[in-house]
Amino acid sequence: MPPADPPLPPQRPDVLRESLRSGGRVRFAEGSPDSFIDRRRAEELLDGLVSELGRLERVLLLPPDFTRFHSGAGELTSMLYARLADRATVEVLPALGTHAPMTPEAISTMFPGIPLDRFFVHEWRNGLSMLGEVPADFVSEASGGRVSYPIRCEIDSRIADGRWDRIFSIGQLVPHEVIGIAGHDKNVFVGAGGKDAIDRSHFLGAVCGMESIMGRAETPVRDVMSYMAKHLASHLPITHVLTVRTRDESGAMRTRGLFAGEGHACFSAGAPLAQASNLEFLDAPLKKVVVYLDPTEFHSTWLGNKAVYRTRMALADGGELLILAPGVARFGEDPGIDGLIRRYGYCGTPATLKAVADDAELAGSLSAAAHLIHGSSEGRFRIVYAPGKLSEREVLGVGYEYADLASALERYNPKQLRPGKNVLPDGEEIFFVENPALGLWALASQFAEG
User: Fold this and answer.
1) What residues pair up with 423 in beta bridges, in sequence order?
2) Per-residue pLDDT band at 11 (split at 50, 70, 90)
């Protein structure tokens, strides 16, 4: 196992990263921080893309699940289906990763117009095809020696064995705690990947340190995903369709950018816009942050701890993070991981690494170990959960503080707060985040270099 507190990994030499990123093609790249790409313009871009790709008889659509409802990927998926269904066999495989399968209601809400019988469920522990392996020496180099294990590249057999004319991987470029910026290859190799890739990539990101990864385009986990794409899956006809989204002043979601293409090129084109649009820089650390978790979107701390990930860089030492979580009813998305979270709690990196060394079950579920690291403040600030469907005893049992939801909502009413700084009638100053999945909050000084 790696030491508890090794130095941050050095950046991989540019020449090596360039070899992973070379090739590919941008089909379209449009947007800016002030752009508004409406449905009509999106349809024009997709019309051009479908026409350019030529005759398609078997097509797989690979969008995110309902936890990325605000990504705009659902609407794009429905648009693509409408353009292809009369000429091709089209199937849809939501990239669930470890998440619970989508309900029929969620599918109908996120993907209007697509029949339910066109959807299939990805199972991250079963129904996989092995494409190869990322060598241990590559992972060691990417991580600066923090970990040295191979990573199996297994993906859903429906992707690997479907003999598709085209696979559309649809998603959002947005800051992410594991890979730096979500979307693109992660959608394929983690969202529709197998247990080994999910476990080991997440643990790789955790031990390399979230603060050195979040919001950055070049990261150790991105290196691993790029290796898989270039060396193990280049035979798959994957076209990425990527959004960059923000809220406008009225609170409505707006598409600021749309990008499409093959290989790494479209990610390189879109990542700078995601950084410009979804990173909110602050001049000074925040003493108190209040985050609201929409109950239709967040049902577990596995998902809801984006409240921790996306604000921890902005929180002051000794500060407080209050999480209003009316829909949170469990810790993990499946019973096994839920049990491990309850057993070990969010107790920081050293305690988690020791638990991995001592417990074969946790060592066999490294994505759970990574989540425990990600969900801790490392003792820097208080994390207070106000859940709708977990007891005080359960919350205290995993290392968080507890607040009564009704009382917390009365004092911090999400409908009355505005995003950013607020001053309550009694003078208390807070920083409010209405949806942590939409961005990253950090100090400008943390991104001054690199």
Assistant:
1) 429
2) very low
